[in-house]
Amino acid sequence: MENSTSKTVLLAAPRGFCAGVDRAIQIVEKSIQKYGTPVYVRHEIVHNRHVVNKLVNLGAIFVETLEDCPNDRPVVFSAHGVPKSVPRKAEARAMNFLDATCPLVSKVHVEAEKHAKSGHHILLIGHSGHPEVVGTMGQLPDGNITLIETEKDALNFNSEAYDSLALVTQTTLSVDDTFHIISILKDRFPNIALPYKEDICYATTNRQTAVKAIAEKCDLLLVIGSITSSNSKRLVEVGDKAGAKNSMLISSSESIDWEIVDKADIIGLSAGASAPEYLTDGVIAALKSRYKIEINEVEVTKEKVIFRLPRKLLDVG
User: Fold this and answer.
1) What per-residue confidence (pLDDT) applies to 200?
2) Domain edge (last residue) among 188, 214, 249
3) 294 labelled catalytic
4) Which entry of 44, 113, 132, 294 is annotated as an active-site residue?
5) Residue 143, Ramachandran bin (φ over 0: left; ψ between -120 and 50: alpha; else beta)
6) What average pLDDT does this structure show over 171-178?
7) Residues 39 and 65 in one domain
8) Measured distance CA(174)–CA(153) in Å, rounded
9) Does 287 lie in the same domain as 271?
10) How confident is the model at residue 1 (pLDDT cuts 50, 70, 90)?
């Protein structure tokens, strides 16, 4: 029941779904409409359990390898991208596959290939084991890409075996942390070939900028997102560094620690790029059920990006 305690909610914008996530989810939904059930999806389409569960209820089956998929049913590759070996295997089995890789991740794949053809050894800034990193490293034969995870890695990388270097990054990193790593590499290797355009995607950058705009005023910053979501975890880190007194990742209103919220007068609220807006609505409703809430939306930019669906699905209403 609502009580007399007043709290201010600073609602970061943009937040939640980006164009790449929206496209990936639509690809699964429209594939089910077109081909019936089940439709197989290799790896979580995006890193959010609520989204995955909704698609499971519609008839999607999530698997980790192509070997878990039958030949006679469609398979969708996740938004994070896949190594080149995966579509090759699907083609060899004459499978009907749909690629939901975010176009901004595909851009990094193309960049990596161009750099390799130009004779560069590629340094990839990213997190080991993340599906996007696995997919990017899998665009080229082993030994063509070295993963750089930290500033220490950047300082310790030995370039003696390589004539020239090029740089690409995972799309969901902290803009500030990546800037420091890139600065080290540029200082050490002034001739390193850089991305034509920033690899960190517009949505990651915009959500981090929005969090920075509210963080310093917040007693508590709540970020809605999955523990497996790289961009969501980065938002928590960005909030901490930008001055929020406390920052927490929550999966939904059900995972809120109300004892911590009780002590906060000004609450910041954002959501990672794979978190649907109804989860934000649920958190606001839960706050309103306990406190008198004043909501101030802080918008740093408007997003108008839309990515086209694969040709195979353009005829689905």
Assistant:
1) 86
2) 188
3) no
4) 132
5) left
6) 92
7) yes
8) 16
9) yes
10) very low
